[in-house]
Amino acid sequence: MGSKKIILFIVEGITDQTCLGYVLSKIINSNRIEFKLTNGDITTKSEVNSSNIPTKLVDVVREFSGKIFKARDFCEIVHLIDMDGAFIPDNQLVEKTPETPVDPSDLKKLYYSDNQIFVNNIVDTQQRNCKKKAVINRLITLKSIWKTIPYSVYFFSCNLDHVLHGERNLLGKDKFPKADAFNAQFEICNGDSSKQFLDFLNTPEFAVTGSYDETWTFIKADTNSLNRYTNFHLYFSNPKNPRDS
């Protein structure tokens, strides 16, 4: 029997990997689960745009691969992104007031509510959202990267913290404790941790119903990209790129 092929999960940061790494390795044991961090939101990085994002993703995968792995060593690439309210109307952006809660670790951090984003600079956030929307729309259309590796992208809204912890404005100081606690509930689970995680992902309150394309249409509508939704459950039940069982 040959070596297991790699399923590479691209995520923003280490706490994303902490939350998901253990339980994903339990659910998907027929492949080798690996993570690559982009150290921030790749969809809004200054050097990234909707034209070059496929190439930038290849760079991400090549950086992970080094001189060890080739394209043939990968089963697929799974990209997990935060929506960050990017698709809301511009008139839902409002300037912060003295009463707006702030994160002491990042005073420029945006503050998200059910239907508005409180910002330091409206024009800057409009430009961020415009760019993020364009890049996401391109990502949704991608079928493969590095020529042959199947690619799919799944969303967490407003962000991964919102879906997994129920907190869309999680303070920087709380990210690691929350991630460790989320992971621990599966590591010390007395029952079936895989089932427990999948049941959680399929929580009706935030698991968007429909196909891959339909869930993306939903999250881009109105102020949905501010609220608690995900389509990551589809990866396990109705994925864009079906896997061998």
What would you say this structure looks like, in words?
The protein is an alpha/beta fold. The chain has one domain (6-86, 125-237). It is 36% helix and 17% strand. It contains 8 helices and 9 strands. The strands form 2 sheets. Strands 1, 2, 3, 7, 8 and 9 form a 6-stranded mixed β-sheet that branches. A 3-stranded mixed β-sheet has the order 4-6-5, with helices on one face. A hairpin with a 3-residue loop joins strand 7 and strand 8. Helix 1 runs parallel beside helix 5 (175-187) and helix 1 (14-27) crosses helix 6. The longest helix is centred in the middle third of the chain and has 20 residues, at 122-141. The two termini are 15 Å apart. The mean pLDDT is 95.
Outline of this structure?
The protein has 245 residues and is of the alpha/beta class. It contains 8 helices and 9 strands.
Summarize the SSE layout with pairings.
Blueprint: E1 6-11, H1 14-27, E2 32-37, H2 53-65, E3 74-82, E4 93-95, E5 111-112, E6 117-119, H3 122-141, E7 144-145, E8 149-157, H4 160-165, H5 175-187, H6 193-201, H7 212-219, E9 229-230, H8 234-237
Helix pairs in contact: 1-5, 1-6
